[in-house]
Amino acid sequence: MRDWARARRERTRHLIELGGLVQKAGLVELTDDDRATMLGAFLDLANQIRGYGDTPSDSLKIRWRRAGLRAFDAEKDAPGKEEETDREKR
User: Fold this and answer.
1) How far is CA 63 from the centre of its chain?
2) Range 20-26, long-range pairs (CB < 8 A, 24+ positions)
3) What integer pLDDT is reported at residue 6 of this predicted model?
4) pLDDT tens digit string along 32-76?
5) pLDDT at position 1
6) 90 pLDDT above the threshold of 80
7) Contact of 19 with 12, CB cutoff 8 Å
């Protein structure tokens, strides 16, 4: 496979995985699939990380990472998820 095709596939996979995170967070349902609302929320998050909010960005990133890790762990430990996790590894 050519390098450009491999890079394109890797980028596509990465973008699909990021979309999966949006779905896992429940943002699609919570916003009624309103992409402008989701983009606005992401822009707000980015501004908070840039330091435009009241909380230091490092504290936010630590808190968000911990919450994300807990969510991944909870999903991994949930009954019936073992089969799905095996599929995702392939």
Assistant:
1) 15
2) 24/71, 24/75
3) 94
4) 999 999 999 999 999 999 999 899 999 999 999 999 999 999 988
5) 75
6) no
7) no
Report whether pLDDT(83) > 70.
no
Q: Name the nearest CA neighbour of 38 among 51, 21, 50.
A: 21
Residue count of the chain, please give it: 90
Radius of gyration of the chain (CA): 16
Q: For residues 57 and 51, is the Cβ–Cβ distance under 8 A? A: yes
The whole-model pTM stands at 0.73
Show the tokens assigned to 11.
């980028």
How many whole angstroms separate alpha carbon 75 and alpha carbon 80? 10
Taking the C-alpha atoms of residue 1 and residue 88, their distance in angstroms, rounded to an integer, is 23
CB 57 within 8 A of CB 48: yes
Nearest to 69 by CA among 39, 24, 8, 28: 24
Residue 44 token pair: 């707000």
